[in-house]
Design brief:
The chain is α/β, with parallel strands linked by helices. It is 25% helix and 33% strand. The longest helix is centred in the C-terminal third of the chain and has 13 residues.
C-alpha cells in the first residue's frame, strides 16, 4: 500500500511549496485539517507562517493540537519554520504561550546585532546524527526566514545549527518528531534531499 503524508492545514501556512516539493519527489500528499485524515496518514508535516500564539490558537480551535500530540509518537512528524517552533513547550513571541510540548525547550527572539528577521541562505553544522540529514554534506546551505528560534533544553535534540550572531538551532529531533527552522522546500537540492529522507521514514 502506498504511504500518504498529511500536510496539516490549520489556516496559517503557505502549503503549496511543500506540497509541490513532496509531489516532485514522488510522495503522495494530502492537505487536510480533518483529525481523522491526520490519524489515517502515515506521516505528518506541520508548516506555519506568522506568530506563535496565533498559530496555537488556530490549532486549538480545530482540536488539532491534541491530534498532533497523540499522533506524534506513532508516525514521523516534521515541523517547518513556525511549525518547528510549535513543537516546543512554549514560546515568547508577542506573549508567553504554551506550545505542543513535543520538544523540551522554549522559543525566543534571536539574540543578535544583525538585522532581523534573519532572511537568506546559511550553512548547517550537524552536532548529532539523524536520518533526516543522511547524505547531506557538512556546511550545506539552506534558506531561512525568521525572527524567533527554538532553544532546546537537551543538547542531544539539536540535529543542526547555524550562526547568525547567535548559534541558532536549525533543526531538532526527538524520537520520530523532527523540525526544521529553515524551509527545506525552498532550499534547492539540499532541501529536497531532506524532504526525501523524511518521506522515506514512513515507507
Amino acid at each position: 500500500m502506498k504511504t500518504k503524508t498529511a500536510v496539516v492545514d490549520y489556516g496559517v501556512g503557505n502549503l503549496h511549496s511543500v506540497i509541490n516539493a513532496m509531489a516532485y519527489l514522488g510522495f503522495d500528499t494530502l492537505v487536510t485539517g480533518d483529525g481523522r485524515e491526520i490519524e489515517r496518514a502515515d506521516a505528518l508535516i506541520l508548516p506555519g507562517v506568522g506568530a506563535f500564539p496565533d498559530a496555537m490558537e488556530h490549532l486549538r480551535a480545530r482540536g488539532l493540537d491534541a491530534v498532533i500530540r497523540n499522533q506524534a509518537g506513532r508516525k514521523p512528524l516534521l515541523g517547518i519554520c513556525l511549525g518547528m517552533q510549535l513543537l516546543f513547550e512554549a514560546g515568547d513571541e508577542i506573549r508567553p504561550c504554551d506550545g505542543l510540548g513535543l520538544i523540551p525547550g522554549r522559543v525566543g527572539k534571536i539574540e543578535t546585532k544583525r538585522k532581523l528577521p534573519h532572511i537568506g541562505w546559511n550553512n548547517l553544522e550537524f552536532p548529532n546524527p539523524s536520518p533526516l540529514f543522511a547524505g547531506l554534506e557538512k556546511g550545506a546551505y539552506v534558506y531561512f526566514v525568521h525572527t524567533y528560534c527554538g532553544r532546546p533544553s537537551r543538547p542531544e535534540d539539536v540535529l543542526a545549527h547555524t550562526d547568525y550572531g547567535e548559534k541558532i538551532c536549525a533543526a531538532v529531533g526527538r524520537g520520530g518528531v523532527y523540525g526544521c527552522q529553515f524551509h527545506p522546500e525552498k532550499s534547492g537540492e539540499a532541501g529536497l534531499l531532506i524532504l526525501k529522507n523524511f518521506g522515506e521514514l514512513s515507507r
